[in-house]
Amino acid sequence: MTDPNVPQAPEVPEAPAGPYVYDYKAAPNRQIVMPKTVPLPSYRTYLAEQKAAAEADEAKWQKSLADYETAKAKAEAEGKDAPKPPVRAVPRKDDNDLKTPWPQEAQDPDLLHLQACLGDKVEEIFEQAGELVCQVAKEAIFEALMLCRDDRKLAYEMLADQTATHYPAASDFAFTVVYHLTSISRRKRLRLRILVPEGFAPESACAAYPSANWMEREAYDMLGIRFANHPDMTRILCPEDWEGYPLRKDYPTVGWGQRDISFREDRGGMLDRIALQKAGQLGINLKQPKAD
Q1: CA-CA distances (angstroms) from residue 106 to 98, 127, 152, 193, 230?
Q2: Strand-pair category, 158-166 with 175-183
Q3: Is residue 215 a contact partner of residue 161, using CB atoms and an 8 Å limit?
Q4: Do the bridges between strand 104-105 and strand 122-128 make them parallel or antiparallel, or are there none, so unpaired?
Q5: Which site among 41, 53, 232, 266 is 20 to 30 Å from 72 CA-CA?
Q6: pLDDT tens string for the chain (292 positions)?
Q7: CATH: 3.10.450.50, 3.40.50.9100, 3.30.460.80, 3.40.30.10. Which one for 104-201?
Q8: How many Cβ atoms sit within 10 Å of the Cβ of residue 157?
Q9: What pTM did the predictor assign?
C-alpha cells in the first residue's frame, strides 16, 4: 500500500520505437487530384463528340414523343382533354462575335502534302484557330521532320519550340510531344505531334534541328521522356539527383521536400507551415509564435 503523503513519480509516456520518418506524401498540401479527362485537341474527337451529342438529343426527343403518346392514351381512356404535344426546341442563333475555335477539316496544301508523302504514317491532320496540326506515328517522327525541312514545297527551316504534356487519364498513351516548326521563307507555321506511351523513347530531332538539344533535355528533366540518339540526355534545370519529374500531373505543386530550405527571410510563411506540419505528425503541441 502506498503512502499518500509521499509524492508519486509522474508517468512518462512511452517513446515511439525506432526513428521517426517524415512522410511527405501524407502532408495535406501535397495531396494530388489526378485529372480524369484527356483534353487533347483532335478533329476526330470533335466529330465523335458532336455525333454523341446529336444522338443524345434525338433520344431525348423520342422519349418526349413516347411520353406524350402514353399521356394522350391515358387521357382518352379517362375522358379528359388530351395534353399538348411536345415542341422540339430550335437551336438558338449565335450572333456573338467570339466563336469557339473548334478543330476543322484540313484544307491547307502543306497538310495534304504531308499526308500524301507519309501515307499511313499520318494519323490525323486538322486545322484549329489558324494553326496547322499533323499527328504522325511515334516511330515516324524523324522522317516527318526531315521531310518538313528538306522538301521544297514545305521548307520549314526552323524548329521554334518543342513541348510535351502529360495525360495520365489516357489509355493508349501517356504523353504528347509537339514540334513547332516555322518556315521563315514562306512565313508559315506547322505543328507535328506524336503520342508517346510510358517508356517509349522517340527519335531525337537534333540531327534534323540542332535547336532541339536543350528542348529535349528539358522534356526529359520535367516529364521523364527520353529521346533516342540524343547527344547528351541529362537534366538541364534540376540537379542530377532530383527525384521525380516536376511537370507530371502526379507531382505536387510544392514538390517532395527538395525545396524546403531554410532561408533567412520567410516572407511566404512556408517554413512556419512546414514546422507546424512536422510537429503535428510528431504529436508535439507546437503553436505558431505571435508578436505582442
Answers
A1: 22, 5, 20, 15, 33
A2: antiparallel
A3: yes
A4: antiparallel
A5: 53
A6: 556 566 555 564 554 454 445 566 666 767 788 888 888 999 999 999 999 999 999 999 999 999 999 999 998 888 888 888 899 888 788 778 788 899 999 999 999 999 999 999 999 999 999 999 999 999 999 999 999 999 999 999 999 999 999 999 999 999 999 999 999 999 999 999 999 999 999 999 999 999 999 999 999 999 999 999 999 999 999 988 888 899 999 888 777 766 655 545 565 666 667 766 666 655 555 555 566 5
A7: 3.30.460.80
A8: 15
A9: 0.77
Strands 131-136 and 158-166: unpaired
What is the DSSP track for 161-173? Answer: EEEEEE-TT-SS-
Cα 164 to the center of its chain, rounded Å:
9
Nearest CA to 44 out of 130, 124, 136 is that of 124
173, 197 contact by CB (below 8 A): yes
With a CB cutoff of 8 Å and minimum separation 6, the contacts of 136 are: 118, 121, 122, 123, 144, 192, 193, 194
| Residues in a beta bridge with 182 | 158, 189
Is 193 in contact with 177 (CB distance < 8 Å)?
A: yes
